[in-house]
Amino acid sequence: MSESRFMFPFPGKIVVGVTGGIACGKSTVCDKLGRLAWEVISTDSYSHHFLDHDEVVKNAIFDHFHDAIKDGHGNIDKVELARVIFSSSVERKWLENLLHPKVRVKWMSSINHSSDTKFVVEVPLLFENNLDAFFTKTISVHASRSVQVQRLQERGLSDTEIDSRMNSQISVIEKSNRANFVILGDGDPKFLDSQINTFLSQL
Length: 203
What we know:
The protein is α/β, with parallel strands linked by helices. 50% of the residues lie in helices and 13% in strands. The protein contains nine helices and five strands, in the order E-H-E-H-H-H-H-E-E-H-H-H-E-H.
C-alpha cells in the first residue's frame, strides 16, 4: 500500500504541511503561523540534528563518502556534503534514504507526544515523497524564479549550485498544483499575512 493511501495518523489534531520551492519563503510562513500559536516543526532542523549528533548516521556517511566529507574536527562538512549530493542524484537519493525515515519518525513522534492540537510542519520534499496523507491540509509557498535566484545568490550560492538545487526538486508550479492552498512568498509582509489569514479561515 502506498503512503498516499494511509489514514491520517493524528486524530484530533490539525497538522498542516508546508512545502514549496527552495528560497520561496517556507520558513517565513511557518514562523508567522508560530506567532499565531501553532507548534512549528522543521524537518530540515531534524536532518541537521541527525547529521551532527547521530553516530549511526555519521558513521554511515563517513563509510560511504570517506574522509573527503570530514571537516577539521572530524565532523561532517555540510558544505562539502551539499556539494556532493546536489551534483549527483544517486548520492542525493542515498542520503535521503538514510535520513528521511529517521526524520519522519522524529516529527511524527513529536506531534503524537505533544499536548498541542495545531501543528505546521515544514517539509521541502513533501510531494516528492508522497506524504500528502500525513497532513490535514498542505500549503505550497510559491515565488518567481528570479526571486528564488536572488535569494540564493544572497546566501552565497553560485549559479551552478543554484541550478543543481532547484533542479533537484519538482517544479514550483507542480507543487502549487498539488497543494490544497498556495501562498505567494515574494510579496510584501502585509500581503503574506493576509494570505495566511485567508488560509486559516478556510480550515
